[in-house]
Design brief:
CATH topology: Beta-lactamase
Number of strands: 15
Strand content: 15-25%
Radius of gyration: 20 Å
CATH superfamily: DD-peptidase/beta-lactamase superfamily
Distance between the termini: 51 Å
Number of helices: 11
Order of helices and strands: EEHEEEEHEEEHHHHHHEEHHEEEEH
Shape: globular
Helix content: 25-40%
Number of domains: 1
Oligomer: single chain
Largest sheet: 7 strands, mixed
Structural class: alpha+beta
CATH class: Alpha Beta
Length: 387
Amino acid sequence: MKYLVFFSFFIISFISHTQDDSSSNIDPENTILFWNLDQKINGFKNGYKYVPSRLINKSSKPLPLNYLLLDFSKVSYKINNKTYTLSDYIKKFNVAGLMVVRRGNVLYENYTLGNDKDSKWISFSVTKSVTSLLLGAAIQDGFIKNINEPITNYLPKLIGSHYDSVTIKNALQMSSGVKWNEDYDDPYSDVNLAAGLNSSDLYEYLSKLERTTKPGKRFNYNTAESNLIGGVIREAINSNLSYYLEKKIWEPFGMESDAYWGLDPTFQDELGGCCIYATLKDYVRLGMFALKQGTLEDGTQVLPKKWIKDSIQPSSSMRYYGYQWWLDGPPYKSYRAIGIFGQLIWIDPRTQTVVAMQSAWDKAWTPEADQHRNAVLNAIMIKLYNL
């Protein structure tokens, strides 16, 4: 079967090829949120080959990861009095890749669904946390003054909309006060219809939305506002996000493989809220970069010294969310970048551990899948604590 590739939710909707197909008449019920498993495996692994995307060149000096593999076969957890092993979790939730790294040592590595160490896999909202890192870099470089600036200082097309009084910090913390529906089960939600929009198309869509509360008062998860943050960075640095990621993090920190960043089809701009395709090892290295507080091996400070610390402080409107990072909350110091269908970079400063996961869950998100993921992470950490 041949496929036409269209942007809709985040990136693409693969649909059967006919003479009458047009990107303007995509059925919302056929977008990526509603793919079957075969479509997910193909699209999550190979999407960058079909959709507009921009290359992020690998480092000339990859950061080495040492192998000290451990036996994880006895790692297990219980839910509703039923015991699950790590292998059970991998099978049940279609985990394509899982890696556990502590202090630069690979303790566990596993690939399924046809993946291997060279396979690239879509990040979905894990990209939001990367965009947050780039915002910190732009502040460090002097392109942006601080996060208390209004978004409209950089995106003047939003002047006159409800974003007039929204700051960069409000968008980082998902508390703009602007109405947005991020229901992944609803084909006609804002996220399914508009999360793949960028630049003036995005600004026009958001300008029509109502305000529900004052900025900073209420948490409301909103992928489009991560795209706005991407737009702020792009306007501030006068360049594209892929180039900036390559020059500030990918090359100097030592990413081993090329990556790609999905673009919107109209303006050819990266989506700040989605669609980096990278290998499992390089997702781990992104977690290591955060663990090192944005510092390179030679001591160069890519991010402001307190950027990561500030990024993982609870927001006033949501105790489990920071600057595009999810927080595990007291008594834990761990935090995570997560994406729908099970994508994950989990970071534990206490043990200097990073867990990266690539998955193709049956649905974008469910309480059951989230419960199992938290339980398996806890089981992994119990093993590490007992070493």
